[in-house]
Amino acid sequence: MPSAATPLAGKTLIMSGGSRGIGLAIAKRAAADGANITLVAKTDEPHPKLPGTIHTAAEEIEAAGGKALKIVGDIRHDETVAGAIEQTVARFGGIDLVVNNASAIDLSPTATLSMKTYDLMQDINCRGSFLLSKLAIPALVESAAAGRGPHILTMSPPLNLDPRWAGASLGYTIAKYGMSLTTLGLAEELRPHGIAVNSLWPRTTIATAAIRNRADGERRAAASRTPEICADAAYLILTSPATTTGNFFLDEEVLTRHGVTDLDGYRAVPGAEPLAGDLFL
Known about the structure:
Blueprint: E1 12-16, H1 21-31, E2 36-41, H2 54-64, E3 67-72, H3 78-92, E4 97-100, H4 115-145, E5 151-155, H5 163-168, H6 170-190, E6 196-201, H7 209-212, H8 217-222, H9 228-238, E7 248-250, H10 251-257
Parallel strand pairs: 1-2, 1-4, 2-3, 4-5, 5-6, 6-7
Helix pairs in contact: 1-2, 1-9, 3-4, 4-6, 9-10
């Protein structure tokens, strides 16, 4: 049962992606309270360059203190997401928290971005977040009626209309801002039901395996923070009152508002070069 020390104990979170990186860190932070976690991800087999599968992620979640349900499937497919919702409710009795974490990225300019990649980003980022949130609404309404403080949290940036971002990577910007518009609209739509809807974005780049595997990965990692800063910020949002809704949070701002002002412990490389800002800020 939830307590002041473990407010997510016994609550159920469903997440898109989460096999590695920021999503896994968020899942493990919730699991430390004793939360139930459903992962909907495609990573059934190991990636040649990136560590972690849905199976290793589930093991880490259970080692952290949570219960894991693995749904191997594609967030782009309606039947996969509907089945994940049904299985989660059947296994854990309901859904309290939704985290839209899955995302595809390609920063190519318009002239060189293939339409196949454009469609992939739209389908995973924008449509996937809309779909998972949409299908979870009935369970979230029940969670609200039971006083369990339901939340939808989407990993997407503030809606920054500075043309710099659209001009640099139009396809990706459309896909990520589509996620953020989903937050904006659902926050208003679901407010009467007592369901909180927010977005979270890192202030700096995050040293995920994808960053480290780049040709300049060590340099980029030295200017980045660890995924745990997003996980700790997400935890504070997900445990806040459901009246905290319609916000585009930055990780470090969430932490400083809760009295965490020394962020050096989140440096991927202690005492390294200045931190690099993330996109869209």
